[in-house]
Amino acid sequence: MTFRDDPIGQRRSVAARTISRSDRYASILTLAVTALALTLGLLLRQSQVSSTVPFVDRTAGVQTRYPSGWLLDTDGDYVMRVRDEAARPFKTTYLIRVVPASPQTSVRNVLDNLTLQRSSERAAYQVLSIQEASETVTRMDFAFVDTDPNPFLERLPVVVLGTDLVILDGDRAIVVTMMAAEDVYTREFPRFQRFFAALSF
Predict the structure, then answer these.
(1) How far apart are the first and last CA of the chain?
(2) Residue 54: beta bridge partners?
(3) 87-90 long-range CB contacts below 8 Å, 24 or more apart?
(4) Cα–Cα distance measured from residue 74 to residue 79, given in angstroms and rounded to the nearest whole number
(5) What is the pLDDT of residues 85-140, one digit of tens each?
(6) How far is it, in rounded angstroms, from Cα 166 to Cα 176?
């Protein structure tokens, strides 16, 4: 049996090759646009993460820079508190406190007072470690369980990790604190280090 030329089949073959080439170009273009969008998104996110806002309290003689977009509060028993309102379920928090101190006050006295206060306010509060971070800075790591006080909201308790950095400065102690949910603490800690590095008093 002899097969003759099939012009319809040839047209289909040409059309298939044309479609394949067009599809290939479309796929490459789609990948390029997707890669570009992802790169721009990462750059925008990085600029947002690294963007900061200056904070100055002339009364306390303290200044630093905190992440832009975070909510600033100066109405409590602290010099300043900033929180990441986008963080869920626990809002990542930075605090700066200035605590009066006498010549006899040691860093350990300051940390013991913090521990006593938090033990009555925070569920399952415990100190994890205390160490000298540098010649002038003492670091205390701690943990507690955060529960929602609203009984009508169903939310599982969240384990929160925190760090205090304490500096004795004459007749006062400066306490810089970070608190974050356990699953984001490690990721957020470098930003807290930059916050602390920007501190001057």
Answers:
(1) 98
(2) 65
(3) 87/180, 87/181, 87/184, 89/146, 89/148, 89/155, 89/156, 89/158, 89/181, 90/146, 90/158, 90/160, 90/179, 90/180, 90/181
(4) 6
(5) 999 889 999 999 999 999 899 999 999 999 999 999 999 999 999 999 999 999 99
(6) 6
